Amino acid sequence: MINLDLVGQTLGPYEMSYTWRDVVIYNLGVGAKATDLHYLYERRRGGLKVCPSFATVTIYEPLFPILEKLNVDLKTVLHGEEFVKFFEPIPPEGKILTEVKVSGVYDKVKAALILLDTVSTDKSGKRLFETEMTLFCKGLGGWGGDPGPKREIQPVPANRPPDFSVVEKIPEIQAALYRLSGDYNPLHIDPEFAQAAGFPRPILHGLCTFGYAVRIFIDQSCEGKVERLRSFGCRFASPVFPGDNIKVEGWHIGNGTYAIRVSTERGEALSGGRAQVK
Fold this sequence. Notes:
Number of helices: 6
Helix content: 10-25%
Order of helices and strands: EHHHEEEEEHHHEEEE
Radius of gyration: 18 Å
Strand order of the largest sheet: 1-3-4-5-2-7-10-9-8-6
Largest sheet: 10 strands, antiparallel
CATH architecture: Roll
């Protein structure tokens, strides 16, 4: 039985210290190329840039003990949705302090839905970003609890082609590389664990796909300027496997807002995507 006593509690702050090496490893983990020196070279004129989706790695250290306290088996967990709101560019090194609130645990009958909200600051207390994470936990529903609010997926415009469309191949090594940024869930590396969780082989981290989408979006719609991204969010619709080709598409729908879709040959991988730029 899932432990509901944590609902409403705020845990932390959790401290994450990192250097330029961690940033470069992360940027490589979300597909930065050798020519992307702004993401890879710490001595570049103008400084090393942090792909904004780096914000999502701050949840990794607290996530696993929080799931343990919730009495949730890792094999049941699928990432449902992710939303990040940015206030300041992320520094290329330093300390980030993160508080995590267990905002809700909802009964979806065949699963439990867990909502985790985080607030992250630098060591001076300046707010850097906030995240909202939804986790879908198979087989843990059915206790007669609150089913929670329904979120409607906002479709992409059907009456016109995207303003940009980029296809990139996910290297076979990518999940093994991305996990070095802190998500050590064996679902992404261990074939036996993946099969026990219902997949034919290890899948790519959802937040790796998310990072690919953020990086490509910044290249296509922000002139490569990471500081222009104000928010990015989506629903995880279906898994991506190392070796897949992913297509990232974006539609400008006004006032700096973009609709985003990420797909593979099998269909949508990230749906209901929205990004805001300044």
